[in-house]
Amino acid sequence: MTADLQPSRQAGRIVRLAEKGRPQVRFRLDGVDCQALSGDTVLTAVLVSAPAVRQSEFGPEKRAGFCLMGACQDCWLWSEDGGRLRACSTLIADGMQLRTAPPEGWQ
Amino acid sequence: MTPPDAEKVVIVGAGPAGIRAAELLVKAGIKPVVIDEGLKGGGQIYRRPPQGFTRPPKQLYGSEASKAVALHTAFDRMVAAGEIDYHPQSSVLATAGNLLQALTPAGRKDFTYDRLILATGAMDRLAPIPGWQAPGVYSLGATQIALKAQGVALGEKIVLAGSGPLLTLVATQLLKAGADIAAVLDTSSLRDQMAGLPGMLARPGLVLRGLLMRAKLGRLYHAGVKLDRVENDERGPLAMHWRDARARAQRTACDMVGLGWHLRAETQLAGLAGCTFDYDQSWSQWLPRTDRMGRAAERLYLAGDGLRILGADGAEVAGRLAATACLADMGLPIPDATRDLRRLDRLERFARGMARAFPWPRDAVRAVPNETVVCRCEGVTAGQLRESVSFGGAEANRVKSLARVGMGRCQGRFCQIAGAELIADKAGIEVCDAGRLREQAPVRPLPISSWVRDA
Ligand SMILES: Cc1cc2nc3c(=O)[nH]c(=O)nc-3n(C[C@H](O)[C@H](O)[C@H](O)COP(=O)(O)OP(=O)(O)OC[C@H]3O[C@@H](n4cnc5c(N)ncnc54)[C@H](O)[C@@H]3O)c2cc1C
Ligand code: FES
After folding, report:
1. What tens digit of pLDDT does each residue of B162-208 get?
2. What is the pLDDT of residues B151-169, one digit of tens each?
3. Interface contact B151-A5, CB threshold 8 A
4. What is the torsional sign of CA B149, B62, B187, B314?
5. What is the CATH number of the domain that holds A69?
6. Does A70 touch chain B (CB under 8 A)?
7. β-strand partners of A36
8. Domain that holds residue A50
9. Cα of B44 to ligand 1 centre, how many Å?
């Protein structure tokens, strides 16, 4: 297998194909400044710079959403204040503080 | 104006079925409540991107653009005119008696009804393959939603696999948008596809369009494949391993996989509302029992893909029929349904042909290796499931409590059909005798904090 057939292994998953001119939105993911576009879902926004939204509770793998239509519940993540949100059906907003792992003391 | 003593009709779902049902009720002077999870009305196929997106309908919906625009316009007009009581971004979680419990953006809200129309649509039907639990493996529908509603691809090099009309469609849509597709792998053989053709000829135009799309995919498309596994590292897919129609082993490098085998009706609310279900051999799934108009029980009507997977045109027809039944039962004047009933027959012939052409991969599911994860939510494997059958007997609800398959976050939506197949295989019975998972409320899990907040 030649190396050039292998896609690059950069951190994010999202490849923007259209509608790239929307205004920018800033948010924080695990304490790191990130950027997305207005109208992105939280899932799109997170997967622009990260490969997953959380760790699976039952297996070794991470999770990055699956259905994008609110049916599988694979894409829940946390916000710094301890709240949880379903990434595929929530739009990103300026100043959101998101976490891919529960905050300290969360259960 | 709704007369003060009019019965209260609630519609769940604002896809083609729900919208056409609402429209007919409005024409009869009723103001229905419409509850829908989406940001905007339109449903799955005619899903609209959020505010600020600018691609024109032709680019979003292709050949179906005029239908999409017609439905969106009809819906937005009813909302603007106050003819329907519309609750967007609201999920109905449970129903009991004449009460619906929903989660709205403002918190929990109860709705009462005299008559209920469920137009909850469908989702991808999934079959497990080794490695599908990895991040970067998505449903085919998700792949399309990402493109349609967000203008993005979920990876740089994409393998689409499974079977059904969405497979070719999503592949062509992605190619057109400039995505890099490495392969389109159809588990249905050309022979299966020929077997479905006579039924599908009920809509020759659609068959032709499908063939043209297939032609555009050229050598990317492979029929009659067997999917061996998704090879992953920590980040996700590295390659799809598969066998071609001549059983030669193939490896296709990729960083994203989209999987789906046609659709599965979303029937959780119908089950909670008291519908009876029958196992349908052509769609290989349990479907609610109704009359031709969509009457499921006293004051309960079903329409669209949540009842029979007839596609978007069929959903519009079914929506009108359900509303007609509802009006008739209220003793109100009704439009003539003869033409719609005839159309429904033709659409159903086509849909059954399609179900035959792109079948559920029964044998492949039965043969998955023991270590294959069947329940993505909780990591239950085929081996654990098989073991619990020997231990607890062949009934889906028993296996659920023993092996926890169907207990996870998705409530069995993505594992139930495959789980039943494995149970039936292990026990040597027909899949319809393996039982059906009982629905449980809430039909979507939710954080406690949002549940205790009243709207
Ligand atoms: C992801 C996906 C993509 C598809 N793409 C195509 C395509 O490109 N071309 C094609 O011909 N067909 C496509 N189909 C099939 C097509 O969606 C249907 O034939 C058509 O949309 C069915 O219309 P409907 O009104 O029955 O349901 P839908 O259009 O699915 O609408 C159902 C609505 O009900 C809402 N809903 C469901 N449950 C609840 C609940 N508990 N509470 C509140 N709201 C709820 C949903 O959010 C949705 O808006 C697709 C299906 C899926 C699942
Ligand atoms: S990805 Fe399935 S619910 Fe969000």
Report:
1. 999 999 999 999 999 999 999 999 999 999 999 999 999 999 999 99
2. 999 999 999 999 999 999 9
3. no
4. positive
5. 3.10.20.740
6. yes
7. A25
8. 24-99
9. 4
